[in-house]
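Before our next group meeting I need something from you. Please put the record directly below this note.
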Amino acid sequence: MPPYGRGVSDRITAGIVDVFVYVVVLNLFIEYFPAAISETFTLSLVTAVLLKVVLEGVVAVKDRVKRRFLEATGPLGKVFAAVLLWAVLFGSKFLVLEVVALVLRGRVELGGFFSVTLLILVLMIARAGVRRLLRSDAPGRAGAGEAR
């Protein structure tokens, strides 16, 4: 049995679960950080989808740069890849801020660089935790053929 459900691809199901996790984390963030503002729940849902799309893109670019770092043979190649990796990780926070500002036109504010960095860290940790919890082979969960 797939780790998330039947009849729907694991990738689509994982994406939907990620958006749900992002909505919960984002709304808690908005509740407890005064610099983070969303006018409505619907806008926070749209923001969660935007974050999912942007962060998936950033993770894909980061993985390519990381692979380039691991494949680099000389010290100059390693340094270049390390600087590029740092630029991707650093710049991604500004990308998130700009995409949210452009698409939602000020109706959602995520704060500044440090609050977005914290938000992204918590989003990634929560996403990994929920994915691990929902995996069918996770400790404490019965497998496909076992009694529950």
